């Protein structure tokens, strides 16, 4: 009965995954997912909501489209963090982990998300602001976006310097 | 049937009425009956090994969550307080069903029932209606959509006015929560389990819908609930829901991690402990307890 196999882990797919499974790209994916996911979930929750209390659970002035996208974003952030960890574990059980490359990917993920959050969420969607009741909001925005760009650039530099030697034709997939 | 005819405002409830007592007793009876059946199943279970104590503990924990939500002080407080109601709902619709599903009740039934009955049960679980209901997208729609309907329509006051509506709503919450948990991270044999990408995607959308509903309730309380109560309850819903959803996300990823273990020494070592049955990817380490004959034709590996 063929239908018994098309869900879950069919034998054909399993054999492909049992190969070397491009550890380089999986490392980068794991790092970016963990970085972006942790930036979106943990940093926002622990630092800005709970520790500083600059952000609020819901400031009631937010349009419906924005809180919908925010809800999706947060759900995706938790999922991305979890998968970032498990993909890293998967790379680790298949061989040595290129830790520097992974670190670069994490930095790129954190910076990329903070940049997205600072530009799209705070400014374009006006989901919530970095801080309320301050006159010079642009200072906070500039600090947020500026630091995001710096972290993103640092991550991209590390990724570029840890790039594996080129082997043309092998990474066609 | 019931002793309530008109709309009773929430908070001014006659919780001691005969209908309410009957619903509470009925819930208690169902929980005790399920626990008795579970005990009988553990005694009759076939196979080389006894039923794993960890699964019994998970199932018992799930039943305790369900019981706490339906019977006793929290259940009674839930009539007047939205926050208590939300606490009960998290136990009944999210944490309880997750623990029940991780307790593998279908596997226990298959191992404990006579083989012919077990085959009949397998056939039943393979029928199209069950397959549709057990798809994660359908289960998420029933659970998440059900919550939206409950809190944004007149169903919420109706639930507190009539014990029978109350019972029906709670049955739906429990059943849809179980379907969702089982379809996402269940350890029972599921020959049509959705691919891991579908399960992870459905979970993201479900979590988002849950968080969105919490924010909506924070701003727009259900009829008959005062604003402060709604704020606390909504935050409990959001953060408590996040904890359970995080557990679901970890379990989905863990299932993938186990099912895609590379071949080699480690995998061979694992295989001697538990045979591989590709129909049940999330249950790799516990799979030895599934009876190969009762699973019926077609469920056999390659």
From TrEMBL, chain A:
Coiled coil: none annotated. Keywords: Membrane, Transmembrane, Transmembrane helix. The chain crosses the membrane at residues 27-51, 71-89, 101-117, 137-159. It comes from the Bacteria. InterPro entries: DUF2243_membrane (IPR018719). Residues 1-23 are annotated as: Disordered. This is DUF2243 domain-containing protein. It comes from Pseudokineococcus marinus.
TrEMBL record, chain B:
Coiled coil: none annotated. Keywords: Cell membrane, Membrane, Transmembrane, Transmembrane helix. It holds the Pfam family Caa3_CtaG. The keyword Nucleotide-binding does not apply. Its main location: membrane. Residues 287-302 have a biased composition (Low complexity). GO terms for cellular component: plasma membrane. Residues 268-302 are annotated as: Disordered. The chain crosses the membrane at residues 18-37, 57-78, 90-111, 132-151, 163-184, 196-213, 243-261. The keyword Membrane applies. It is found in: Cell membrane. It is a multi-pass membrane protein. InterPro entries: Caa3_assmbl_CtaG-rel. This is Cytochrome c oxidase assembly protein.
